[in-house]
């Protein structure tokens, strides 16, 4: 731990610089996991700067295909940071979730997929603290559950499965709506989608 703390700043800088190096899916996961491990085993003093940087990358007006890997890497990083550190990060999650959902409006299927998985991780890390964002996440995930991309449908089912642990409205006032939507998501689906949605129904 002492070794990590001594070199933490440099390691964080290196990992953040990799966000803009057009990382592919495996590299995105590695960068995100390593950042989360660094902060959970070292000091968390600069974690809010890292979160701000990721939010900045997500909100960039650059919509070119070449910038997409950077945006997606930032989304993945935020998911892992909140999953690992959760409530330590305080109320910053409200802004983060807003920014991620904002980015989804213009996202391609790959972006929607990563956003759903990132929101699942955020929910996992925050537990009951995420209540202020439950409705917004629910709305976004509902839309994605009938997405034309099968991968996005799977990710949305996983996100909703995590959400229903604390979002009691899903299995009380909204139960009929959720069940109807689940059956709708089976239309034209594949095996993976059927399995993921069945878990949500079960």
UniProtKB/TrEMBL annotation:
GO terms for biological process: endocytosis; intracellular protein localization; retrograde transport, endosome to Golgi. GO terms for cellular component: cytosol; endocytic vesicle; Golgi apparatus; membrane. Gene3D superfamilies: Leucine-rich Repeat Variant (1.25.10.10). PANTHER family: HEAT REPEAT-CONTAINING PROTEIN 5A, HYPOTHETICAL HEAT DOMAIN-CONTAINING. This is Clathrin/coatomer adaptor adaptin-like N-terminal domain-containing protein. The lineage of its organism: Eukaryota, Metazoa, Chordata, Craniata, Vertebrata.
């Amino acid at each position: 731990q002492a070794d990590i703390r001594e070199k933490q700043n440099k390691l964080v800088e290196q990992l953040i610089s990799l966000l803009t190096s057009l990382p592919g899916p495996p590299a995105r996961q590695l960068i995100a996991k390593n950042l989360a491990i660094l902060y959970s085993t070292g000091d968390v003093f600069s974690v809010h700067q890292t979160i701000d940087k990721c939010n900045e990358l997500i909100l960039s007006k650059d919509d070119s295909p070449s910038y997409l890997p950077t945006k997606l890497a930032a989304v993945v990083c935020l998911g892992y940071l909140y999953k690992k550190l959760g409530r330590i990060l305080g109320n910053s999650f409200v802004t983060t979730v807003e920014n991620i959902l904002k980015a989804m409006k213009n996202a391609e299927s790959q972006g929607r997929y990563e956003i759903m998985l990132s929101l699942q991780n955020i929910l996992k890390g925050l537990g009951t603290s995420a209540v202020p964002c439950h409705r917004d996440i629910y709305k976004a995930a509902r839309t994605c559950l009938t997405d034309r991309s099968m991968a996005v449908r799977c990710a949305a089912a996983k996100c909703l499965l995590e959400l229903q642990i604390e979002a009691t409205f899903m299995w009380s006032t909204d139960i009929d709506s959720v069940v109807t939507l689940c059956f709708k998501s089976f239309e034209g689906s594949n095996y993976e989608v059927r399995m993921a949605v069945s878990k949500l129904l079960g």
